[in-house]
Amino acid sequence: ISPPPHHDIYSIEDLAQLIYDLKQINPRARVCVKLVSAAGIGTIAAGVAKAHADVILVSGNVGGTGASPQTSIKYAGTPWEMGLSEANQVLTLNGLRHRVKLRTDGGLKTGRDIVVAAILGAEEFGIGTLSLVAMGCIMVRQCHSNTCPVGVCVQDEALRKKFTGTPEKVINLMTFIAEEVREILAKLGYRSLDEVIGRTELLRQVSRGAEHLDDLDLNPILAKVDAPDSARRFNIPTFRNEVPDSLDAQMIHDGRPVFERREKMQLTYNVRNTYRAVGTRLSSEITRLYGMKGLAEGHVHVRLRGSAGQSLGAFLCQGITLEVFGDANDYVGKGLSGGTIIVRPTVSSPLTSHQNSIIGNTVLYGATSGRLFAAGQAGERFAVRNSGAHVVVEGCGSNGLEYMTGGMAVILGKVGSNFGAGMTGGMAFVLDAGGDFAAMANPDSIVWQRLESAYWEEQLKALITEHARTTDSAWSKSILEDWDRRRGEFWQICPKEMLTRLSQPLSDHVALEAAE
User: Fold this and answer.
1) Lowest model confidence (mean pLDDT) among 11-25, 83-97, 205-219, 345-359
2) Which of 152-166, 331-345, 497-511 has the highest mean predicted lDDT (pLDDT)?
3) Virtual CA dihedral for 108, 109, 114, 115, nearest 10 degrees?
4) Among 11-15, 70-74, 195-199, which is the least confidently predicted range?
5) Torsion angle, CA of 47/51/52/58, rounded to 10 degrees?
6) Of 394, 436, 468, 470, which is least surrounded by CB within 10 A?
7) Backbone phi, psi, residue 331, to 5°
8) What is the pLDDT of residue 19?
9) Cα separation, 491 vs 488, whole angstroms
10) Which domains can be identified in the chain, with CATH numbers?
C-alpha cells in the first residue's frame, strides 16, 4: 500500500493543495516534488513552481534500488541531463527559476557528474546507488527476497552478520567526490559550485569522429537561457516558499490560553470555501507543544458556520474537534490523526440529509486515527487508504473504501460502483435498503454478510448513536428508532485478505474477537 496522501495526484491543483497542506502541518519543512526526466518536463516543472514547491527533483533513467522491479527501472524516463536542462530553461524563460531549487539524481557517480549537473542548472544532487555500493552493496537486485548475500537489507540474522558497512565509508565517498569537484572547479577557474550553476557556456560537445554516423546535436541541452528577472537564491540552504495563512492564524491567536495555560476552549468562526486546511496549522502547534496525544478529546472545540474549503481538518490531531454547520469541500480529514470532525447541515436547511451531499471527494484519504461524522453523503473515493479512523456518513460515490487497511466505516445509504476495491483491512457496514449493494461491491477484494455477531452489532449501533448525537441527523435517529427492522438491511463487509489469515469463517472470527 502506497504512502497515503502523497500519491494519486491527478492535476496541478491537487498537487498545489497537497503542498499547501504539508506546509500547514509543518511550517518548517521544505517540500520537494520528484519529476521523472522526460520530454515536456519543463511545462510540468513550471506548474510545480507555481504550486509553491521548494525543490524540484529531476530524476534520470539510470539508478534505482535493487528493490525496484526491472520494469520500473529499464526504459523509464530519459537521461537526467535532458530533463534538467529543459526544466532549468523553461523555468528561467518564465521567470520562475528563482522560486525553486533544482535537484537531480539518477546514477551520479563522480565529481565530474556533479559539476556537469550544476552547469546544467542543478543546485542539489542525490547520490543513492553509489552510497549503497560504498556500504557494501553488490547490486544483485534481490532485495525483495530477503536473501541479500552481503546483508544490506535483510531480516535474516545470519545474512545480517555479513554486513560490513559503516558511516565512515559513506563519508569517505562523499569526501572523494567533493575533492574531485574542487579539482575540476579549480581547472575551470572557479571557487564554488554556486559560481557555475547554469553556466552552460562552460560545456561543449565533443565529436566522437564517427564517419558512418551523424553526431547527436546537443545544442538544445547546452543552450544558454537567461532572463532579467531570474533572481537566484543558490546560496540559501534553508530556502522555502511561504504560503498564505489560513483561518488557523486567527485560531492560534485566539487560542493562546490553550498554549499558555492548557485551558479548554471553544472557538467560533464563519468560514468560506477559500479557507483551506482549517485546523491543520493549529494541530501542528498543539503537537509541537503537547505531542500527538497530549490533550484529551474535545479539549479545543472549533465551531464553523458556512462552507469550508479543501482539506478541512487535514492531519487533525487528538484534542481538537471541528464542527461545521454547513458543508465542506474535497479532502475532508486527509491524514486524520486522532481529531474529530463533525459536518452537519445548518438548522434552517430544508434538505433531507441522506439524499444530499455534504462533503466532497477523497474524504479521509490516508487517515490513521480519529473520527468523522457527516450528516449527508460523501463524494467519490471515500476513505481511500483509511488505516484507523472511524466514520459514519449517509452515502458515498464510486470507489469507496479503496485500499482501506484499518478502521471502521458505516455508510447509512447507497454506495457507488467498485466499493471496497483493494481493501485489505478494517471493517465496514452498509445500509442497503434498496437491495443493490451486491451490484456495486468489488467481489475480488471483499466479502459481505448480514449481521451475525452481537459484538459487531453493538459496535455498529454505538457509532450510529454517536452520529445521531453529534450531528442531530433525523435519518440516523429514524434508523435507531426502527432498529429491529433496520438491522436486517445492513451488510457487514470484510476484506478477503483478512479471511485468508484465518482458519475460521467470518462469523466464527467476529465471535472470537468479541470474546477477546
Assistant:
1) 205-219
2) 331-345
3) -130
4) 70-74
5) -40
6) 436
7) 65, 25
8) 94
9) 8
10) 30-204+218-222 (3.20.20.70), 260-515 (2.160.20.60)
